[in-house]
Amino acid sequence: MLFSALRRCGPGVRSSAGRPAGAAIGQRLCHSSSFRIHPGVRQALADGRPVVALESTIITHGMPYPHNISMAKEVEDVVRANGSVPATVGILKGKVHVGLCEEELLFLAKSKECVKVSRRDLPYVLSQGLSGGSTVSGTMIAAHHAGIPVFVTGGIGGVHRDGEKTMDISADLTELGRTPVAVVSAGVKSILDIGRTLEYLETEGVCVSTFGDSRDFPSFFTPRSGFQAPCHVRNEVEAAQLIARSLEIGLGSGVLIAVPIPSEHSSSGQEIEEAIQQALTEAGLQGIVGKEVTPFVLRRVNELTGGKSLQSNIALIKNNAKVGSRIAVALSEIRSPKRGPRKSPPCPERREKPPADSRPVVIGGINVDFIAKSANDKMVFGGQTNPGRVHQSFGGVGRNLADCLSRLGEKPLFISALGQDDHADSVIRFCSHMDMRGVAQLKGHNTATYCAVITDSGELSLGLGDMDIHQRITETYVSQFADSLRQTPLLCIDGNVPASTIQYVCDLARKNSVPVCYEPTDVDKASKPFLSDSWKALTYISPNLKELISINVTLGCPVPFDVPSELDDVIDAAITLSLPLLEYLRVVIVTLGAHGVLLCGLSNEGTLSLCPRTKVRRGDPCALHYPAAPISPKDIINVSGAGDSLMAGLLSGALSALNTDTCVRMGLLAARLSLQSRGPISRLISPSAVSPQQVEAMIWPNPRVWRIRPSDGKTFLTSRHQQQS
After folding, report:
1. Which of 174, 176, 281, 684 could form a disulfide with 254 if both were Cys (CB 3.0 to 4.6 A apart)?
2. Domains of the chain
C-alpha cells in the first residue's frame, strides 16, 4: 500500500504543510524496518533543503580500495560545496540506508562480500540480511521512497552490444521509465550500444536531455557519442525547470540529464574504443556474462589505458556531482520559493551576543594530541613495543594558528568545537591565554584526539585521529559570528571544517572584501575550497608540495607524474603548480619543511607584497625562496606545529604591514622555536622573541628570486634581490 501510494502522489505533489510530499514520506520511511534515513538527510528533507542521492556500486564494484573510499568522500564534499546535502545509498545487513556515515562508507569500500543490488535483487538481499552497493535502479527506488528528486551517478546502464540477440538490457532503463527521479550522469557507458539505448529510453517515455552548449549525447569517457539527444538544457536553472515540470504533471517516469565530461579530462575516444573492444573480446572468451560484464570491462579498460580511464571516471563523477548539486539547489528554489527560515540541523549552542570587533578570526580544528617519540630512528612494526617517550599536548591546525597569533599579541577570535569531557576541560585550561569564546562545547560528542608516532629525528611515522567533531563547525554555527567575520582584518580557516562552511566563509569574505588565508591541513582536505568557486575568494594559501598537487588535480591542471625530491626540482614544480592559482590569490606560500618556504605571487611595483589590505597592481608572476632558520638536527623535538608557527609569524608581520622579508623571517623564527618545543607551539614565542628587531639581529642569506616571463612561462633566476617596505 505504501509503495502504491508513493506512485500515485509522486514527489511533485505537495503536502498540506507546504513541503514536497516526498519529504513527509521520507519521515515515515525512516521508521520502516527495511529503510534507514540518516538523521542529517532526514532533517534536510524535513527542512526542504536540497538533497542529492548517490549510488554505491561504484564504491563496491567500480573502483579498487582505497580509490573508492577517497572518491566517495570527495564526491560527497563536492555535493556539499555546491549547496546540497549528499545521501549515498547502500544496503547494510539487510537494510537500505539513505545517507551513510564514514564508517559505513568504509565498510562498503573494504568488504569483499558486497553484492550489486538492483530492483530485482532488493527482496532477496533484504530478506537474507546481506550488504551491497546500490545500482542506478536500486538507488532510484531508495531516492524516490525517501522523497529525493535528484540522483547523481557516473553513467547509466543500457542496451548491451548485440542486445538484439542476447536481450541484455539494463534495469536502469526500465527504472527510468517508471520511477520519477532525475538522474544526472555522463550519459551511457561507452561499452554499450548507445543508439539502441536511446531508442529504448524513448520507448519507455523517458525525457532525455543533454546539459551545456550542445545536443551531442555524451558517451561517458568522451563528450560526444555521435548521437543527438532529443532535448537540451543550457544550465542548472533550465534543468531544474525541466525536472519540476516533469514532477508537476505526474508522468511517473524519470528524467535523464546527460552531462559531458569536461574536455580537459576526456580521454582519446579511439584509444578507449580499442580498449573496450579488446576487453569485450576477453570477457567473451572467459565466459563472463550478465551483470559481471560491466565491472570486468571497466577494470580491464583501465588496465589497457594505463589508468587514464580511471582518472577520467573520477573527474566526470565529480563534475556530475557539482552539476547535480546545483540543479538540486535550483529545483529546491522552484518548488519552495516562499519557504521561510529553514530549521538548522543540530549544531553547537547559540550565543546571544557573539563578540564582534576588528581582530583576526581563526576557524578550525582543535585536538588533544598524544605524541609518542621513538628512542630509535628506525622503528619495528608488527606488534613489537618500541622504546620511547609519550606525552600529551594540544594541537589542531586552527588551534595552533590561534595559539601562535595570540602569543604574538594578535589575540584572534577562535571558532571551533569541543566535546563535554575531560579532554575539553584540559584544553580550556591550557588555552586560557586565547580568546575561546567562539569554541562550543557539545554534549554527546568527543573532543577531537590525535595520536602521532614520530621518529627520533622528529619525523611523523604514523598518525591516528578521532576528528568527527570538526564536522560540527557548521555554516549555521559560524554564521553567529558574522559581524566579527565582516570586520576582521584577516580570516584564517583550516581544512578540518566542512566544505559547506568554507564556502559560506569565502562567500561572506568576498562580499565584504575580507582577506582569507586557507591552511590545507593535509592532502585529503587540501582541495575543499577548490570543489566550487570558493577558492577565488582566498588571499593566501599555504600548502606543501603534495597538497599543491592535489589542488591542481582538482582544478584539472597538469601535475608531475612523480613528486620530485631534489630541492631545485621541488621549487620548479611548486612554481609551475602555483601559477594557475595566481589569477585570484595574492600569494601561494609553499612550505618546504627543512628547506624553508617558497612564496609565489604577482610583483607589485617590483616587490611581492604580503600586506592583506594593500591593493595589488597586477604584475608579472615571481617567486621567492627563503631557506629555513638554522637549527641543529639534535635540537629538533617536534615538527608538528612548525608550519603553523611559520604561517602565524608571517601573518602577524603582514597585519603590521611589514615588508615581505621581515614577515617571512618572523615566520621562520617562530617555526624554529616550535621545532625545539615538546608541544606544537612553543611557549617561548612572544612579540619580543619574534620581532623585526630579532630578524635584523640575525644574518640571513638573500632569498633566491624567480621572475616568470609572461610570453613563454619560463623562469630565470635573479641572483640578488632586496625587498622594499
Report:
1. 176
2. 2-335 (3.40.1790.10), 361-718 (3.40.1190.20)
